[in-house]
Amino acid sequence: MTYFLESKRVGLRVLCEDDVNGNYRFWLNDGLVCKYNSHHKFPATIEDLRAYIKRGYQDKSMIVLAIVFKDNSEHIGNVALQDIDYISRCAEFAMLLGQQSYWRQGIGKEVGQLIIDHGFIELGLNRINLGASAENIGTQKLAENLGFIKEGVRRKMLYKNGKFNDIIEYGLLRSDWEKKHNNYTFEK
To answer: I need a labelling partner for 87 at 20 to 30 A (CA). Which of 9, 33, 46, 167 fits?
Structure first.
């Protein structure tokens, strides 16, 4: 299998139409998988997923990749840099690890490092941000492990699970990322 980006355990590849026939079609309709994100408010249909994949091929303001566990070639989630602004050189990080059997194994950090490195090195981004529900301790820990800095709170921003939840905003600047990567510098 050819991967766009890869590490020891995971490969990131382009989402394809065949993915909608696999486990992907169940993730957005799974209340536990979507417990802390903005999905699972309306049913996700196969047509919705196909349209999203097609949009990913055409829309250069986003890079959406399938997360594949290399040992068994299983599609276990998706990761994205989205809302890419090429003038301000920023983007939003998003990830959905849909296969619960892969949770709490450090895969999120491995995947996050791949896509963040790609954003700073290949896309020349200056900033990557992410938002996490105040209840989503796992994503908050992931953000901190990836070097993101807590920047603020959007109060009562997400209505989920019958209540309004705060969103904690994190940011990672290229300069902070460079320090973490032994002063890697870009050609300017």
So the answer is: 167
